[in-house]
Amino acid sequence: MNKLTARIVALFFLIAVGFGAYEMYLRTPGVSAPERTITVLNGESLAQVSAQLKEAGVISSPALFSVAADLVGEAEKLHPGNFVFKQGMSISSVLATLRYVGKTEVSVTIPEGYDLSDIANRLVSSGVIANAEDFYAVTGKPTAPIIIAPELLKDYPFLVGAPNLEGYLFPDTYRFYAASAPRDVVTKMLDEFKTQTEKLDLTRDQLILASIIEKEVAGADDRALVADIFLRRLKQGMPLQADSTVNYAVEKSTLQLTNDDLAVSSPYNTYKNAGLPPGPISNPGMSAITAAQNPKANPFWYFLTTKDGVVIYSRTLDEQNTMREKYLK
After folding, report:
1. Which domains does the chain have, with CATH numbers?
2. Largest CB tally within 10 Å, which of 119, 161, 172, 255?
3. CA atoms of 277 and 275, how far apart (whole Å)
4. Coil/strand/helix, residue 226
5. Which tens digits make up the pLDDT trace of 164-190?
6. Rounded Cα gap, residues 53 and 41, in angstroms
C-alpha cells in the first residue's frame, strides 16, 4: 500500500470514526424536533426496531444503531412497550430510552360473554396490542371462519374443526405486557381455557350452547333451566330462537330485534336455522359452561328476559306471546 492510499484509508477511517461518534453521542435533536412514538412488540427483532426508528426519523443509520446495540449488550434486551423519542436523538440516548423504560405490565379484565370484537377493543384501549386487525389475524373475526395457525392446532387440539377462536379465550383478569404481540396474548388466554376446562370433558356443542346461555340469562338457576329448554328444543328439531345469536349475526346488542334482524341470512341466526350455530357466539365463563353440562329439568319450552333482567318462563307459544306483550312492549 503506497503512502497516498494509506492516507486516503486513514482519512476515511477518521471520517467513519467521527461519524460514528457523532451518531453515537453527539447528535442532538433540534429545539422544535417533533416527538415520535414507537411501539416495540414482544419478540420483535433488533432489525425491526431499527427500521421503525429510521422510518420515524429518530436515527439516521439502522446499521450503526444495530452495531452499537450489539456492542453495549442491548440487542437481546429489547422490551415491549410504547416509547417516545425526538427526531435526531443520538444512538446512546435512544438506547437509554429503550433500556430504562422497561416492561410495562397492564391489568386487563375480560368479562364473561365478551366476543372477539369486544376483546380486541378492550386490548387495544388498554394498550396491550397495537390494533384489532393484528389480533383478528390470529383469532378471526366474529362469524367469519379463519384458517387457524397449525402451531395453535398442535398446542391446543380442542381448536381443531373450530371456525375461529370465538369461545376459547377464557374470560378472566390478566396481566399482559404493554404492546404485546397478539399471538402471545391469545396463547395466554388459550392456556387459561385449557386449565379451566381440561377436566370437564367439554364438547364443542356444549361450549356453543354455553356461549348462548351466557348471553341470554344471568344467574346459575336460570342458566340451568334455559339449558334444559334449549336441549329439548334441539332434540325435537325446533329452532332455538335465541335473540343473542341474531344479535351476534348482525353485530348488535338489543332487547328488541327488528324484522330485518330476524330475517338475516346467517348460519348464526337460530330463528331461521334449526340446530346450533357453527361456533360459539361469545366467550363464556364457568357458570354458563356448568349449566350447559348440567341442565335442570323443567316443563317450559319458552322464556324471555324483561328489561329488568327477570326471566319469565312459558309452557306454550300462546303463553309466551302474552308474556311478550306484557313485559316487552
Report:
1. 24-101 (3.30.1490.480), 105-197 (3.30.1490), 204-328 (no CATH)
2. 119
3. 7
4. helix
5. 999 999 999 999 988 888 999 999 999
6. 14
User: Cα–Cα distance between 44 and 78 in angstroms, integer?
Assistant: 8
Over residues 264-288, the mean pLDDT reads 96
* Residue listed under C-alpha cell 443509520: 61
DSSP conformational letter for 78: P
Distances (CA, A) of 229 to 35, 269, 275, 290, 315: 59, 18, 13, 15, 10
**Strand stretches in 79-217, DSSP E:** 81-86, 105-109, 173-177
Query: Does the structure show a pLDDT above 70 at 125?
Result: yes
Please choose, from the candidates 187, 185, 249, 186, the residue with its C-alpha nearest in 3D space to the C-alpha of residue 212: 249
Is residue 201 classed exposed, middle or buried when 0-12, 13-18 and 19+ CB atoms within 10 A define those classes? exposed
Which whole number is the average pLDDT over 14-19?
43
CA atoms lying within 13 Å on the CB side of residue 329: 6
* Sequence-distant (≥ 6) Cβ neighbours of residue 120 within 8 angstroms: 129, 132, 135, 136, 139
| pLDDT band, residue 5 (cuts 50/70/90) | low
CA dist 222 and 198 (Å) reads: 25
Q: pLDDT-based confidence at 291, cuts 50/70/90?
A: very high
> C-alpha cell of 258?
327488528
Distant-in-sequence, close-in-space partners of 229: CB < 8 Å, separation ≥ 6 = 298, 300, 301, 302, 303
216 has pLDDT over 90: yes
